[in-house]
Write a structure and sequence with these properties.
This protein is an alpha+beta fold. Helices cover 23% and strands 15% of the residues. The strands form five sheets. A seven-stranded antiparallel β-sheet has the order 11-12-14-13-20-19-21, sandwiched between helices. It starts with a helix and ends in a 40-residue tail after the last strand.
Length: 684
Amino acid sequence: MGKLKFCLLVLATAATMAACGGGSNSGSSAGTSPPPPQSTPDSGCSGFCANASSYLSQADVQTIIAQAVNEAQAQGKPAVITVIDRVGNVLGVYRMANAPPTVRITDPRPVTGGLIGLDVPPELAAISKAITAVYFSSEGNAFTSRTAGQIAQEHFNQGDATAPAGPLFGVQISNLPCSDINTRFTGNGTNPGTHRAPLGLSPDPGGISLYKAGVPVGAIGVSGAKGTYTLDLNAEDRDKDLDETIAVAGSYGFIAPADRRADQITAGGLTLQYANTSIGELAKNPATAPPFSSLTAANGNLIAVPGYANAVVLRGTAFGQPESGVRPDTTEWPGLDAFVVVDKDNNNRFPPRDGTDGANALTAVEVRAIIGEGIKVANRTRAQVRRPLGSPAGETIVISDTNGVVLGIGRTRDALVDAIDVTTQKARTAAFFSGAYAAADIQAAGTAKFFTANVDTNNRLVTLTTTSQGVPAGYVSATRAFLGSQTALGDGAIAYSNRAIGLLGQPLYPSGVPGAPNGPLALPLANWSPFKTGLELDLSYNQIALSIAYIYNQKGYALNIDGATIPAPTAANPEPLPDVRRGCTDIARLPSGFSLFPGSVPIYRGNTLVGGIGASGDGSDQSDLVAFLALSNGETALPNSGLGQAPANMRADTLAPLNSRLLYVQCPQAPFIDTNEANACGGK
């Protein structure tokens, strides 16, 4: 069928569809296939459309896989294709015949160590890409793993050596396989709760969020077609990524509304990226893809992924329903349209509770009040990364005590899913680095052993060899030299927000200044990568690597780890290497790791540190605002508690290393939907 006839047919049968002009950010319609029908320019959804019918059916998953296989075959590049639901349940993993058994983690720059050089099963990369795409998407914004890579690097945009770091710098080291917050595959079917990403969140193109009726219902992730797991270092070109091209084909019929895609949203005055391949540029028309039922063993097969999925196709869960693990709150914050995180029995996993750190500990009443104030602020705050313009920010608010114990989690409607883990990291980060125990805890943490992997598929052997190391204790001495204080991180004298810690964790200080030295929690730029960040990765690296080793072992590989042999599983010994623990670091206060992007402040009772509050889900300034004002407004709502912000003379913005002042919070001007109030954080 010719392109004109195809478009006429579409217009005749689907009046609500957009014109046939392609589905990409470029609008290109070049290629051999006609552009398909797209969602209406305005989905009409802004956080209130999800319902019990908003999920991917088994037939949907099969269609998505079949469309992706069709394109991969046309490209002559077999791949591994994964489909997940909105909370990360893996609904199907399909390995095409002759797809590579591994992909290597690479950075185009000459950097070694960290995660770089590891050979990993492509299904792990595909799952991480898919989780990234859907965890960063909502009814108001559709992001991809390419979008994530754009906003998480040392320059925004990448390729501009004079630009500061992206607004989500460091976010890739989150939602880790060792997280104590995210749930795990239980061996059969789907289960409620946000799920872990095998490689953390992904900066590599190939993850595309999937929509039905304007509602995000899942994502497709593809890996193996290009042979590596990497990232794009230039946001200005339109390089074609094979993994992304195949994922775009799979998304046909489930493409996000055009006006909600990342390329229609700006951050810091820059337009975000969505995908560099349009439907119209595909090698095959996905509408004519043979059905899933026609695929034979010669094409490929469904595979199991230990710890993540069985070799079946599943129905997804409906977000906002108890089955997803996120549902409306019914008891804690009445009248605020709040949401909570629940378990398989529909019980709130993180209700407000008392702190565990002594006489000054936060009480459940105080936690409930402060989170409630945060929800109120979020519902009034104008979103940065959502459409239509004027939508409220979608935020998750978390409070932690100084021991890293989560004291409560509350969410606004349609808040991003990644934020459940990330916001917990933020709250813990503020409480940890502000405490007198931080230095000792870091110094006691184990050395990160950076591996290279030799995967011998013929002999079913994986050899992991330590090639370099990361020593956490070195970051304490570096911080003390950088700040000019021999007691820094060990005296509790400074209140650190996430924004301050994030600046200290960047490879350029000040951020974006060419030739500047690295912050003391980061590596120098010449030795830095999103896959090798500094302390942020070093603390969690061993558990990430062990989780990869576990999956190889469960796939029938024997392991040689620095000379120590672990046999392949047998009936008598089905798990020679156990799955990675729930706890990413050797620091009890940081079981999910820590975060480098803004959105948290420590909580004080007078001059005594009692915890941290984090917010996440929109622009970084919006998250700063929500966390900061939640605490300030909570102080007003709890007048006899003594709770409030850190004293002004303790805050990190009193420090000016290298004559460049640290920041504490950075709140947007005139942030509210309902008033013209400006400088909302000033004087607090």
